[in-house]
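Milestone 3.1: sequence recovery, worked example.
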C-alpha cells in the first residue's frame, strides 16, 4: 500500500475524493488530510507519504508554495494537482515542480482513477527497482565479505605468490587500518555444558550470527573481520585492534551476548600481538593455542599458563623460532635435541607450560608441512581432542609424538620418502580457491613445494582431470558467473576480482567457455 495525503481547504471536497475511488483496489490508502499547505507540511514531519493530492487555491499557504517546498525537501513524493480552468499560473507551477498530473475541477471519477492508477504503477515500479537495488547491494556486500575472508585465509596460510597483491586487497576490503597497526587474533568458542554432553552443532549458526553482528558494531572497533577455519569448525576467529582495552571490551561483549541469548558460556581467547600481515599467521596460531589451553584449564581447573611476559616464556619463543629454522633446513638431529631440552624445561615449570610447548611445536611442524604441501594426518587429532595432548605426561611420550609428526618433513628433505601425492594436489586446489584473483603461477608453486614442474603438472592433471591452467580458469569463471548473477558490478570490476588482466580479455575467455558474452549472460538471466 502507498500512503496518500489529501490537501484542500474544503472538507466536503476532501470527503468527495475519499468516496469517488476504491483506493484499496489501486494499492493506495488515505493516510491523512490537511486544510492548507502549512498543515500539510506539519503532517509530513511525522507522517509517511508517497502521494499528495492538493488543491491550489488555499488560505495561509497555497498549492504553489506547497509544491515548491515539496520539490526541494521531499523530491520522492508524487504530486497530483487540482485546479480551476482559468488558473494558468497554477498549471505553470505544477509543470515547473514536476507534478505527476494536473486535473481540472470538477474532477470526474474516471479522470481521478486514471491519474491515480498511473501514479500507483510508477510507485510500484520504483519500489521494485529499489528492492532489487538493495538486494543486489546486499549480495555484493556478502560476496565481498566472503572474498575478504578468503583473503585472510590466504594470509594466514602464507601461500606463495600472494604477498605482492596484499596492498591492493587491503584497500579493496577496507583492512588498511588493521594492516598498519598491532592486532590480536581472537578465538571464540562455546564451552561444553559438561564433559559427557559435547556442544550441539545446532547452536553453530546462531552463535556465528551473534558474533558477526557484534563484530560489525563492537565498541572495540567497527567492522571487525570475523572468519572460520576448516580445521576448527566449532571456533570463530576475529581480528581485533591490539589495544588491551579493545580486546577486553570485545571479550566482555561476546561473553555477555552469548550468555544472554544462547544461555551458554563462551571462551574468548586472544593470541599474541601481530604487527603487519606477515605476522598474522603467527598471531592466528597463537589464538588457537590460547583457546585450547584455556578450554582445558576451564574443564580441569588447571593452573593458568604463565603470562607471555614471563622471561621463561620469552626464551621459549626464541627457541621455537630456532625449531622452525631446523625444520626448514631439514636438520633432524638438531630439531630433536632442542625439542627434548625445551620439553624438560617446560615440564619443570608446570604441566600447563609443558602442554603449551607441545602445542607450539605442533604448530611449528604444521607451518613447515603447509609450506611443503604435506598433510600431517595426526595433527587434526590435536585440535579435535586437546585432552589427548594433556595426557602426554612425560617428556619421552611427547618427544615420541613430535618426532613422528615431523619425520615426513625430514624424509622429504632427504628425498627418500614416498610423497603424499593427493596431499599436494589438495593443497594446490585449496590455494586456487583462496587465491584465484591473484596471478597464480605453476612454476612458482612447484618451486615452493620442491617439485619438478613437469611432474607436478602431470600429477595435477591426473588427479583432477584438468590442467592447472584449465582448473584455475574454471574456478575463476564460476566466481565470475556468480558476480554477474548477483551483483551489478561492471565487467572491469568483475575481471579484476576474478584474476583477469582486463575486461576485454575476460569477455573473450568467457565467450570461449560459455558461448556467449558476459553481457549476454546477464540479459539472459533477466529474461528468465
Amino acid at each position: 500500500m502507498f500512503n496518500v495525503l489529501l490537501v484542500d481547504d474544503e472538507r466536503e471536497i476532501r470527503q468527495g475524493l475519499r468516496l469517488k475511488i476504491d483506493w484499496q483496489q489501486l494499492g493506495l490508502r488515505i493516510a491523512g488530510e490537511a486544510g492548507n499547505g502549512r498543515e500539510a507540511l506539519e503532517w509530513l514531519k511525522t507522517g509517511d507519504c508517497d502521494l499528495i493530492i492538493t488543491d491550489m487555491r488555499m488560505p495561509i499557504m497555497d498549492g504553489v508554495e506547497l509544491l515548491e517546498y515539496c520539490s526541494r525537501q521531499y523530491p520522492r513524493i508524487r504530486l497530483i494537482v487540482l485546479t480551476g480552468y482559468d488558473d494558468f499560473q497554477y498549471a505553470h507551477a505544477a509543470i515547473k515542480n514536476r507534478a505527476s498530473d494536473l486535473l481540472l475541477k470538477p474532477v470526474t471519477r474516471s479522470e481521478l482513477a486514471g491519474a491515480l492508477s498511473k501514479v500507483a504503477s510508477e510507485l510500484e515500479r520504483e519500489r521494485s527497482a529499489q528492492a532489487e537495488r538493495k538486494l543486489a547491494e546486499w549480495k555484493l556486500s556478502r560476496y565481498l565479505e566472503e572474498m575478504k575472508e578468503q583473503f585472510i585465509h590466504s594470509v594466514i596460510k602464507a601461500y606463495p605468490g600472494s604477498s605482492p597483491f596484499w596492498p591492493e586487497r587491503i584497500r579493496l576490503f577496507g583492512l588498511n587500518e588493521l594492516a598498519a597497526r598491532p592486532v590480536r587474533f581472537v578465538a571464540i568458542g562455546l564451552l561444553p555444558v559438561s564433559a559427557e554432553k559435547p556442544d550441539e552443532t545446532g547452536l553453530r549458526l546462531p552463535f556465528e550470527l551473534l558474533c558477526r553482528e557484534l563484530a560489525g558494531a563492537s565498541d572495540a572497533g567497527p567492522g571487525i573481520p570475523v572468519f572460520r577455519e576448516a580445521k576448527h569448525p566449532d571456533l570463530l576467529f576475529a581480528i581485533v585492534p591490539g589495544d588491551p582495552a579493545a580486546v577486553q571490551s570485545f571479550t566482555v561483549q561476546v561473553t555477555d551476548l552469548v550468555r544472554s541469548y544462547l544461555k551458554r558460556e563462551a571462551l574468548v581467547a586472544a593470541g599474541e600481538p601481530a604487527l603487519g600481515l606477515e605476522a598474522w599467521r603467527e598471531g592466528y596460531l597463537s589464538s588457537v593455542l590460547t583457546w585450547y589451553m584455556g578450554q582445558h584449564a576451564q574443564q580441569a581447573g588447571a593452573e593458568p599458563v604463565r603470562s607471555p611476559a614471563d622471561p621463561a616464556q620469552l626464551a621459549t619463543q626464541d627457541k621455537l623460532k630456532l625449531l622452525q629454522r631446523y625444520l626448514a633446513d631439514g636438520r633432524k638431529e638438531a630439531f630433536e635435541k632442542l625439542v627434548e631440552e625445551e620439553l624438560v624445561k617446560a615440564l619443570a615449570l608446570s604441566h600447563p607450560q609443558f602442554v603449551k610447548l607441545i602445542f607450539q611445536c605442533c604448530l611449528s611442524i604444521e607451518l613447515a608441512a603447509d609450506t611443503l604441501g604435506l598433510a600431517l594426518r595426526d595433527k587434526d587429532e590435536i585440535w579435535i581432542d586437546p585432552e589427548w595432548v594433556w595426557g602426554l605426561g612425560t617428556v619421552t611420550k611427547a618427544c615420541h609424538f613430535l618426532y613422528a609428526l615431523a619425520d615426513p618433513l625430514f624424509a622429504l628433505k632427504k628425498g627418500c620418502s614416498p610423497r603424499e601425492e593427493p596431499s599436494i594436489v589438495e593443497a594446490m586446489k585449496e590455494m586456487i580457491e583462496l587465491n584465484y584473483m591473484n596471478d597464480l603461477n605453476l612454476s612458482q608453486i612447484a618451486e615452493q613445494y620442491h617439485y619438478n614442474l613437469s611432474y607436478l603438472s602431470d600429477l595435477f592433471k591426473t588427479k583432477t582431470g584438468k590442467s592447472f591452467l584449465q582448473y584455475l580458469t574454471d574456478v575463476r569463471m564460476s566466481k565470475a558467473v556468480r558476480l554477474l548473477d548477483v551483483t551489478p558490478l561492471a565487467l572491469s570490476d568483475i575481471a579484476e576480482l576474478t584474476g583477469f588482466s582486463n575486461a576485454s580479455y575476460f569477455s573473450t575467455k568467457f565467450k570461449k567457455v560459455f558461448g556467449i558474452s558476459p553481457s549476454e549472460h546477464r540479459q539472459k538471466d533477466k529474461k528468465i
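The longest helix spans residues 109-157. Residues 303-312 have pLDDT under 50 and may be disordered.
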